[in-house]
Structure formats: structure tokens, C-alpha cells
Amino acid sequence: MFELSTNCANPKQLRQTDFSDFDAVYLGDFSCMEYPNNYCSHPELLEAAVNQLKAQHKKVYLRLYATPGNEDLPQVREMIEAALKLPFDAFEVHNLGVLRILQQMGSTLPVHLGVFGNLYTDASARVLKDFGVTRVYPNPELSLTEIHYIREQTPIEVVLPVHGKIPLVISETCFIIENSQSCAKKVDSNGNSVCSFPCSQDYWLNRSNGQWVLKDTGRMTLSGKDLCMIEHIPELLQAGQSYFYIQSHGETPEYVETTGRLYRQALQQAEAGNRSDAPQAEMDVLNALSKEGLCNGYYFEGAGQTYIARG
Length: 311
Known about the structure:
Blueprint lengths: L2 E6 L2 H6 L7 E4 L18 H10 L3 E5 L9 H11 L6 E4 L2 H9 L6 E3 L8 H9 L2 E4 L7 H10 L3 E14 L4 H4 L7 E2 L5 E2 L8 E4 L6 E4 L3 E9 L4 H6 L4 E5 L5 H19 L8 H10 L4 E2 L16
Parallel strand pairs: 1-2, 1-13, 2-3, 3-4, 4-5, 5-6, 6-7, 7-13, 12-14
Antiparallel strand pairs: 7-12, 8-9, 10-11, 11-12
Helix pairs in contact: 9-10
């Protein structure tokens, strides 16, 4: 058996997107608490979202803000307090401080370590297991060999990203606003800053010689190319991987639905022993969804820009 999951930032995305091909959904944009109606920062929105996804027989995980300052912790506690009254299946955290707060508040729910928890070794996974973490998201710089080793050596679940842009950098401040005069925050009559959310549009960082492109979403920078492992699904299952994730931060409903359908189909076929190579039609569709093309990230111990076909 396998689990295929993805993310959903707010009610608008939940309304517009069909998540039927996913087994689980991570609610919230962990990179920016100011994002409109973010499930990470609006406790009043959680109940309706959980009920809707549970009615579709999905597991539902709540993402907690990845880079909270001391001033953010009361809001983090408010989110946890609201979530503990609802049938969430797990919390996702990115730092030990929030993990500690969960314990102090008496949470007995499973805890997943997110991508910016920066897990590199099986030794770290074992320590986190002792602190109540049940699932880890390995650092994107790790190879498949290293990730398989962590899964084999540690009694902990390992989630494996198989498609989507690779999270690289996260910040407390917004890169777009800081570096664009047209996007500067405005101030309301009470002196409070008001964000116009330029991150709702695509922003790309281009190296002058054209060797690479990154996508910036304000407080998080991702790869320009999409990680794509659909050709390698049989080997991933054979290696014992069970938890697969499609990174869909900032993507369209079409992107989420199409990648979910293709990867679910690939996983089912491989699980039944009926899949060898990915049909060219699948690759053409995934290529068309990616503005900058496809890559394998660091999985095959390369620099992250190339795509290595199966075989």
C-alpha cells in the first residue's frame, strides 16, 4: 500500500481543485502566515476544510508555520488549540521549538517533520523519533541512496517527494517586496502595513548567463524545474518507499489534478507489477505543465538540473 499526498493553502484552492487522486492533503502555506486565508494562520477556517476532506475519506495534516519568531508563537499556539478539537491526522513542524509546544499542549497526534527541518542523517531521524516525530521529509539535497538508508535504518516513516518544484530557501521576510518598488507594502490609516500579495503572480530569478532559473514566492525560493520521478516509480516501490508527495505550492488546479492522476495511475500499475517505462504521453503532459522543464533533483547525486531517464 502507498500514500500519495499534496498540499492545499487556503479555501480558494480547496474549492477549485479536485483532490480525488490523493490519499492525504497537507493544509496550509507554511512559508507565509500573511498569505490570504492561509490555513496555517486562520483557525476559524479549519473545521470546514477538515470536514470536506474527511467526507472524501482523505487523511488531513495541518502544517504549522515554518519560521516563527517569538512574536508569532501565540498565534501558533492558537492554531494548535483549534486543531486539537478537530479530527486532524497529524501536525507538520519544521523546528524543535514548535515540536516542544505541541508536547506542552498535550497533543498526542502524529508529528511530521517538514522540508525545512533539514534532516540529513539517520542519526537525526532517531533523535526526532524519540521526541515524538513519526514521519520525516529528507533534505532535498540527499540522494535516493541516502534516503533509502534512512528509511532502512530508522523506525520512522519517510515521505518522498516525487514531483514538483524543490523547496530550497525560506526566509522571515518577503524577497519580492524587498526587491521591487512596485510591490512595496502599503500602510493603512492605522499605520499597519498592508500586503498586496504579489506572490499571487509568478516571479522567476534568472542567472545572467541563463544557466539556471529559480521560482520565488516571496518568503520561499524553489527550483525553476520540476522534480519528476514518474519513470522511476517501480524502483521506488521496490526499495520500500510508501509515502509519496507532490509539491504543488503556487501551482494551478490543473497542475495538481493532472500530476495526481498520472502518479496515482503509475503507482497502482507498478504495485500490480504492470508497469515498466512511463508512456511518452505521460512525459509530454508533465513537460507541458513545467515552464522550465523537468529534473531529478539531487536523487541521482547530480547538481539537480538534469533529467535522467529510467533504464
